[in-house]
Amino acid sequence: METKLVTAPTTLPIVTYDLNYYLRLDGAEHDVFLGDFIKAATEQAEAFMSRRLITQTWDMVCRSWDDLLKYKNGALRTMPYGKTQSITHIKYLDADGVEQTVLADDYTLMFSGTDGAYLVFGSGYNFPALHEAAGTVTARFVCGYGLAADVPEAIKAAIRLICGDLFDGKDNTRAIESLMAPYRLFNF
């Protein structure tokens, strides 16, 4: 299983004005590189937590139906990146190499706990034979907390601290990790 970004978020969890205030900077002369710091800090936070913060669309590309639905140990596969909002479609290459789309009525996105979601097909669904090429089943999904206002404050604080470290060279790694630890995902 691999993932590919389809539609990136159009905003970031914090804005340069917020970071200017946090760093006690006057004026907008630092805004260009502070914007870069926010992007880098957001990427670092998302990588550490294995989740995506602002609404975005991804493809989960799998080699088989089992790869789509289960981990190698047989457990149900949780959708990547947490806070799955929806499944846009599931497409596959049939045995002849022709792309087909699974009817939305044939599967359900089931939610488990506050973050987990997984796909379940109806008991009568007959999984079609797939083309032998790798990456023959693709589930397109939308994930993230939503807007910047929906991102938990602890994650925003961690992003500000990462930006502060980039700006002044301090090391707040322990504080940053402790702020993000409750939101970290380990299961995809």
Any guess at the CATH architecture of the largest domain? Sandwich
Runs in which pLDDT lies below 50 for 5 or more consecutive residues are none
Domain unit count: 2
Class from helix and strand fractions: alpha+beta
The rounded distance between the terminal residues' Cα atoms is 10 Å
Radius of gyration: 20 Å
Order of helices and strands: EHHEHEEEEEHH
Proportion of β residues?
Answer: 15-25%
The coarse silhouette is elongated
- Subunit organisation of the chains: single chain
Give the biggest beta sheet.
Answer: 5 strands, antiparallel
**Which strand order do you get reading across the main beta sheet?**
1-2-7-3-4
Q: Helix proportion of residues, in percent?
A: 25-40%
According to CATH, what is the class of the largest domain?
Answer: Mainly Beta
Tell me the number of helical segments per DSSP (H or I, 4 or more residues long): 5
CATH-defined topology of the largest domain? Immunoglobulin-like
Number of strands: 7
Please, what is the average pLDDT?
91
